[in-house]
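Before the break, one more example. Copy the sequence into your notebook; we will annotate it together after we see the structure.
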Amino acid sequence: MTSLDALNVDDSQIIWRYFDFPKLVHLLETSSLFFSRLDLLGDPFEGSVTTADLSALVQGWVSMSEESGTPAGYYELEHRHRNSDPRHSLFVSCWHMSDFESVAMWRLYAGDMKGIALKSTVGKLRTQLPSEGRIRRVKYIDYAVDKTSHLSPAYCKRNAFEYEREVRAVISRSSNPSLTGVSIKLNLDSIVDEIRLSPELPPWMSDLLHQLLARYCVKAPCLPSLLDKQPQFDWELEA
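Here is what the structure looks like once it is written out:
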């Protein structure tokens, strides 16, 4: 059974955040990183429990009723009458864990390959979090079979998302259904090692991005994607 400690990530681990153009502008303009509320990340399974978890929970209620002599169903009823959704107090920033760029991440999160990627490390991101912030890798599970008893639902996703190799920074706030996200101030120069330009970025947009980064005095090197390199073929060698 996996514990939260098993999901810890070494501070030296390279991580990436892929942005489309509007999200980059927001980052530069506000000098802050946006954390989305857990239930608004786009996957309906976020924050849910597995079949095995639910069975264990129901059995626990039965045992508690038997031991305390309370009527059957009492503890389940108490649980169902909770006033707040626990997902409304958890806010997440998602990063990709890899030593190199990902074509899939470019296509999914960088505006159809017309955005940028920030390269950082777990340790540098950690220094920018508030005191209650935690960084852990995501555990990919089968919700029909696996148990998450010792894990926060914030660090679990379905096996179908395993290709994302996700590392999550999670912060907590008082539950508020009207709060869809929070922005955390950060020092961009302290967190970013490199900025990579999308491999399909047109020249005019590349020029614009360089100008934008210069205007905001971003010191991190802005480099073309390594996926821009051209292939070589042995039949093209000159005699």
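The mean pLDDT is 88. The chain has one domain: 4-236. Try to locate both features in your own notes.
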